[in-house]
Specification:
Blueprint lengths: L11 H11 L13 H14 L13 H13 L2 H16 L8 E10 L8 E3 L4 E10 L5 E5 L7 H12 L8 E4 L6 H9 L3 E4 L15 H12 L12 H28 L2
Helix pairs in contact: 2-3, 4-8
C-alpha cells in the first residue's frame, strides 16, 4: 500500500538530481533493498518537523536505518558535496558564474539541549549553546559552515570559516562582514589570503532599523535556516552533525529552486 505524501517529500525531478550522489551500487555483499528516496524523504521530514529520530512516522523506513544513512553521508562528505554541486547549478541557472568571487560571513547563536557536547555562553546575547558561523555567496547560498561553542568570539569563528574556504573557491576576492569583525581580523586576513575583508558599518547617526548593503543577504540565509525546526536549537551531541544538518537544509532549499523553473515551463 502506497503511503500518503508529505510536503517535504522529494518530487521525481528532485530525486533525479540527488540519485547519482546517494544511490551508489554495492560492489560486494547483497544488493540493497532499502529505498533511498524514502530515506531522504524521512531525513527531510525530520529536518522540517524537528522531531527526534525515534519519533519518525511509521510509514518511513525504521529510524535506525534512516539514521545510519544520514550518518554515513555525513562521514563520507555527501551532504557537503551535494551543497557544492547544487549551489553551482543554482548559480548558473540564475545567470551567475558557477563559483563566486565575493562572499559574506555572519554568525547565529543557538541554544543547545541536554544532549551534551561542545557548548559555551555567548556573553553578548547571554545564551548558552553554540554559534553557526556561515559564509554565503551573493545569491545567499551556503559556501561553508562551522559550528563551535557560543563563547568563541566572532573574529575567531571567522578565522575558522576562512581556513575552510581556502582552496575551495579560487575566484574569491572579497568578503563582506559587519562591525563585529573589525580589529585584528583585518590584518590577519590581509597577511594570509589574497582576499579583501570589507566591513559594512552602520552609520552612527542612523536611528531605528536600516537595511545594510550586502549584509541583508547573509541574514536572509540565516532566516531560511530558521524555517527548519530541527535547526531552531542545536540538538546534536557532535558539532559535525550540526554542520551536516545545515548543509542538508540548504540542499533541500536548492532542490526546490532547481525544480521550480522546470515545473513552470512544463505547465500549460
Amino acid at each position: 500500500m502506497k503511503r500518503q505524501n508529505y510536503p517535504t517529500d522529494l518530487t521525481d525531478l528532485e530525486w533525479i538530481l540527488l540519485q547519482p550522489f546517494v544511490a551508489i551500487p554495492h560492489l560486494r555483499g547483497r544488493p540493497r533493498t532499502i529505498d533511498l528516496r524514502e530515506i531522504l524523504n524521512a531525513i527531510f521530514y525530520l529536518l522540517q518537523a524537528g522531531c527526534g529520530w525515534w519519533l519518525l512516522l511509521h510509514d518511513f523506513p525504521k529510524w535506525q536505518t534512516v539514521y545510519y544513512y544520514f550518518r554515513l553521508w555525513k562521514r563520507t562528505g555527501v551532504w557537503h558535496q551535494l551543497n557544492e554541486v547544487l549551489r553551482q547549478r543554482v548559480r548558473q541557472q540564475e545567470g551567475h558564474a558557477a563559483e563566486p568571487s565575493p562572499a559574506m560571513i555572519d554568525s547565529q547563536t543557538v541554544r543547545t539541549t541536554e544532549q551534551g557536547g561542545v557548548r559555551g555562553i555567548d556573553g553578548g546575547k547571554l545564551v548558552k549553546g553554540r554559534k553557526r558561523h556561515i559564509g554565503v555567496d551573493t545569491v545567499g547560498l551556503l559556501l561553508i559552515v562551522v559550528v563551535p561553542a557560543a563563547n568563541v568570539q566572532d573574529r575567531d569563528g571567522a578565522q575558522l570559516v576562512f581556513r575552510k574556504l581556502t582552496g575551495w573557491f579560487p575566484r574569491l576576492r572579497k568578503v563582506w562582514a559587519d562591525g563585529t569583525y573589525r580589529g585584528t581580523l583585518l590584518d590577519w586576513v590581509k597577511q594570509r589570503f589574497t582576499w579583501v575583508l570589507d566591513i559594512v558599518k552602520r552609520d552612527d547617526w542612523v536611528q531605528g532599523f536600516k537595511v545594510l548593503p550586502k549584509r541583508w543577504i547573509v541574514e536572509r540565509t540565516l532566516g531560511w535556516l530558521s524555517h527548519c525546526r530541527r535547526l531552531s536549537k542545536d540538538y546534536e551531541a557532535l558539532t559535525e552533525t550540526s554542520e551536516a544538518f545545515v548543509y542538508t537544509a540548504m540542499v533541500r532549499l536548492m532542490l526546490r529552486r532547481l525544480a521550480e523553473p522546470t515545473l513552470q515551463d512544463a505547465s500549460p
